[in-house]
């Protein structure tokens, strides 16, 4: 990544180490976002990796063993970002990215509020309620990367927000079993009632429920893809590849016969490479063009 940091003009040794930590977090915990970030020009990659590396750090705190430490950390980070200085390594890379791309702090604050809600909210009554959460948990992140990808219009920015919500709904569908074991049910209660699902267990009702939610997610991806041509040419392949990689999880759920209760399905490395390599070549052509 040192060449990428050089390209981005990030020369301070400590700041470079902060960005490298974000990159490692993203590469270790979310290969889809990491692969998609590599499709950007080198000067832009560290900034996307800082945004999603920060998000991954927060998510790991909420879902890991340091839940008690999340609240104080969140309050300290938000105060630091508003003050314009922080000693937190993850926060320092994010703060530099926010300054570089004029990203407002309220997006980070809304994201952290959504993460905090995971510690106290175990279910959602309606899809509208869930949509508010998904905007905070992922729509905000997509809005943060929107200027890096070259979104310069309200339509393009809204398409990126919808992309983030599609990612989050896909995550929810993939992680039904894991979340259930944590005591959380993100699938809206109104949808469970609609399909006669009284408890989350295999069966025709559960299959119809997941089929319905998959169709909902695919519609979000369709609407998000419509805005991709409005991005800067060097950002389009990152958005498209991200949607292909994450959207591929929906197909994997179908091929697994909708078993998201006993297993965590995903897109295999071979399929990821089949998506990433052509996209990388197209991204190179876009930079030349």
Automatic annotation (TrEMBL):
<dbReference type="InterPro" id="IPR002060">
    <property type="entry name" value="Squ/phyt_synthse"/>
</dbReference>
<keyword id="KW-0808">Transferase</keyword>
<dbReference type="InterPro" id="IPR044843">
    <property type="entry name" value="Trans_IPPS_bact-type"/>
</dbReference>
<protein>
    <submittedName>
        <fullName>Phytoene synthase</fullName>
        <ecNumber>2.5.1.32</ecNumber>
    </submittedName>
</protein>
<dbReference type="GO" id="GO:0051996">
    <property type="term" value="F:squalene synthase [NAD(P)H] activity"/>
</dbReference>
<dbReference type="InterPro" id="IPR008949">
    <property type="entry name" value="Isoprenoid_synthase_dom_sf"/>
</dbReference>
<dbReference type="GO" id="GO:0004311">
    <property type="term" value="F:geranylgeranyl diphosphate synthase activity"/>
</dbReference>
<dbReference type="InterPro" id="IPR033904">
    <property type="entry name" value="Trans_IPPS_HH"/>
</dbReference>
<dbReference type="GO" id="GO:0016117">
    <property type="term" value="P:carotenoid biosynthetic process"/>
</dbReference>
<comment type="pathway">
    <text>Carotenoid biosynthesis; phytoene biosynthesis.</text>
</comment>
<dbReference type="Pfam" id="PF00494">
    <property type="entry name" value="SQS_PSY"/>
</dbReference>
<dbReference type="InterPro" id="IPR019845">
    <property type="entry name" value="Squalene/phytoene_synthase_CS"/>
</dbReference>
